[in-house]
Amino acid sequence: MQKFVKSACLVLLAGWIGSDTSLAQTNLPAPGSTNRPPVPRRSIRRFSGKILSVDRQAKTITLIESKTVIGISDKTRISKANTRLSKKPTTFDDLAADQLVTGNYHQDSDGKWQADTLVVGDPRQPLEQPVPKTFVAPVRTNTVRTNAVPTSTVSTNAVH
Description:
This protein is α/β, with parallel strands linked by helices.
């Protein structure tokens, strides 16, 4: 039985080594085929800082600390910090110099930075509108009941 198991393992190992799949094989398409290699993922980065300037013609903002120019497109989600209850959306026209901003951005095919998300304002400041407080009713708990007699009702001087 042991010889059979050893020979089966050797056959499987030889078949694996002799297979035509190798580590050097690539995912490149054959010449003339319409299949394209997979597109590399964009690297998304975070940014934060104060706005130095807003260019309304080019739809870009420049940050003070890093002098980074970030493009704002129609796909950029712009919101204000701590305005969960606000119904008023924030737009590119609301941006001004010296505002704190944070967000995510990526580098497009031209090498320019494009914002994916933009949050305007300091998230550490208090909310514009207070969050309504909700009343939580107390929960009844199950108490453990025993058949034990309370000690205050037991008479120690009982005469029989």
